[in-house]
Amino acid sequence: MPDPRALASMLALVLAMPAAAEGIDAEKQHELEHLVLQDCGSCHGLTRKGGLGSPLTREALEGMDRQVIAEIILDGMPGTAMPPWRPLMTEEEAYWIADYLLETEE
Ligand code: HEC
């Protein structure tokens, strides 16, 4: 008879797996939207229309590749005030933000 606690933790792992595969859940999306508003907004404007940083509106980013945007978010832009966010977020989250910027009205 295997240790019931080992079985329980295995079961917990299996149950947690579908959620992990889905990646960014609703709660995380909410956090990222908040980050865009508060943190990115402090430089790019609360309505993303620009400030210290250039506008991040859908129109301003139109034609830019989501990968390029995600890389800028992750690594920053050397020589500008755009900081690298890699220490603070996963690549998946940076891609989510890139899509969010490209797809949503500010
Ligand atoms: C400390 C100020 C600051 C913060 C915070 C900041 N940025 Fe920037 N960002 C800049 C500056 C400055 C530039 C480069 C010059 C420019 O494009 O105006 C830039 C450039 C960019 C660019 C390239 C824009 C283009 O048209 O080439 C993107 C995309 C971008 N930032 C996204 C973000 C996102 C997303 C966040 C939040 C996760 C963020 N930035 C947070 C200052 C900031």
From TrEMBL:
<protein>
    <submittedName>
        <fullName>Cytochrome C556</fullName>
    </submittedName>
</protein>
<feature type="domain" description="Cytochrome c">
    <location>
        <begin position="18"/>
        <end position="105"/>
    </location>
</feature>
<keyword id="KW-0408">Iron</keyword>
<feature type="signal peptide">
    <location>
        <begin position="1"/>
        <end position="21"/>
    </location>
</feature>
<dbReference type="GO" id="GO:0020037">
    <property type="term" value="F:heme binding"/>
</dbReference>
<dbReference type="InterPro" id="IPR009056">
    <property type="entry name" value="Cyt_c-like_dom"/>
</dbReference>
<dbReference type="InterPro" id="IPR036909">
    <property type="entry name" value="Cyt_c-like_dom_sf"/>
</dbReference>
<dbReference type="GO" id="GO:0046872">
    <property type="term" value="F:metal ion binding"/>
</dbReference>
<dbReference type="GO" id="GO:0009055">
    <property type="term" value="F:electron transfer activity"/>
</dbReference>
<keyword id="KW-0732">Signal</keyword>
<keyword id="KW-0349">Heme</keyword>
<keyword id="KW-0479">Metal-binding</keyword>
<dbReference type="Pfam" id="PF13442">
    <property type="entry name" value="Cytochrome_CBB3"/>
</dbReference>
